[in-house]
Amino acid sequence: MTALLEIKGLHANIGDKEILKGLSLTIQEGQVHAIMGPNGSGKSTLANVLMGNPHYRVTGGTVLFKGEPILELTPDARARKGIFLAFQYPVAIPGVTMVNFLRQAVNAKRGVDMPIREFRELLFKQMDVLKVDQDFARRYVNDGFSGGEKKRAEMLQMAMLQPLLAVLDETDSGLDIDALRTVAEGVNALMHPGMGLLLITHYQRLLNYIKPQFVHVLIDGRIARSGGPELALELEESGYDEIEATLATA
């Protein structure tokens, strides 16, 4: 069976500094994978490389999405294929309402304009799923939003774009426990058997609400260890020191 996402021996730089140093990872449809690791290990670099951020330069390896190479594709072409990235720090766009932003994004992904009535029906349906008030759609994108509202806006984008692979880059960053629970409930509501999810996080607490089948530890640009959900609990207790020490003596 063709994997949803297959990464083999991925190397990537930012400037002259190598960040990813031979990373390999496979995600099948319906799977939830979590990547954890210390600061500077390459977690956000992986997310940006998968989405095609031009500030990062791939120097080796392959990335296949549904069996097709994507490293030469632009970010918008990757989005049209069904890849979505939720940013750690979403930017504000004053003067652009959520509803206009979402309609442009949906039309760009589809390649044709969705009729306004159909778009509004989809928007209100997804807002109901995510428990988002309809007034939210009239606000400017992330302008004056709290941390929780910014992450809800990301989840609403995800709901409208209906990706096949969602990469959530530290979605739990800056959220209190109530906002975290709300965002996690939204992610769980949007998951379906044909979709894959890659969670990038520092902390195990997100994984209390979004349950991964696989947990990977990323250290110094490589996956140093993989396991099931119990690995996240182990990291919560012992941290990364033991794994880093093992790598240093290998």
Précis, in short:
This protein is an alpha/beta fold. It has helices at residues 43-51, 75-81, 98-110, 116-130, 147-161, 177-190, 229-238, 241-249, and strands spanning 5-14, 17-27, 32-36, 56-65, 68-69, 83-86, 93-97, 140-141, 165-169, 196-201, 214-219, 222-227. Strand 9 (165-169), helix 6 and strand 10 form a beta-alpha-beta unit.
Please tell me about this protein's structure.
The protein has 250 residues and is of the alpha/beta class. The chain has helices at 43-51, 75-81, 98-110, 116-130, 147-161, 177-190, 229-238, 241-249, and strands at 5-14, 17-27, 32-36, 56-65, 68-69, 83-86, 93-97, 140-141, 165-169, 196-201, 214-219, 222-227. It has a single domain (5-249), classed as Rossmann fold. The chain has eight helices and twelve strands. The strands form three sheets. A six-stranded mixed β-sheet has the order 6-9-10-3-11-12, sandwiched between helices. A four-stranded antiparallel β-sheet has the order 2-1-4-5. α4 packs across α5 (147-161) and α5 runs parallel beside α6 (177-190). It is globular.
Global mean pLDDT? 93
What percentage of amino acids are in beta strands?
25-35%
The CATH class assignment is Alpha Beta
Low-confidence stretches: none
CATH homologous superfamily identity: P-loop containing nucleotide triphosphate hydrolases
Return the CATH architecture: 3-Layer(aba) Sandwich
Number of domains: 1
Mass-distribution shape:
globular
Oligomer description: single chain
What is the spatial order of strands in the main beta sheet?
Answer: 6-9-10-3-11-12
Radius of gyration: 18 Å
Main sheet? 6 strands, mixed
Derived from helix and strand composition plus strand pairing, the structural class reads alpha/beta
Total helices: the number is 8
Helix proportion of residues, in percent?
A: 25-40%
CATH topology: Rossmann fold
What is the succession of H and E elements? EEEHEEHEEHHEHEHEEEHH
Q: Count every beta strand, where a strand is a DSSP E run of 2 or more residues.
A: 12
N-end to C-end Cα span: 34 Å
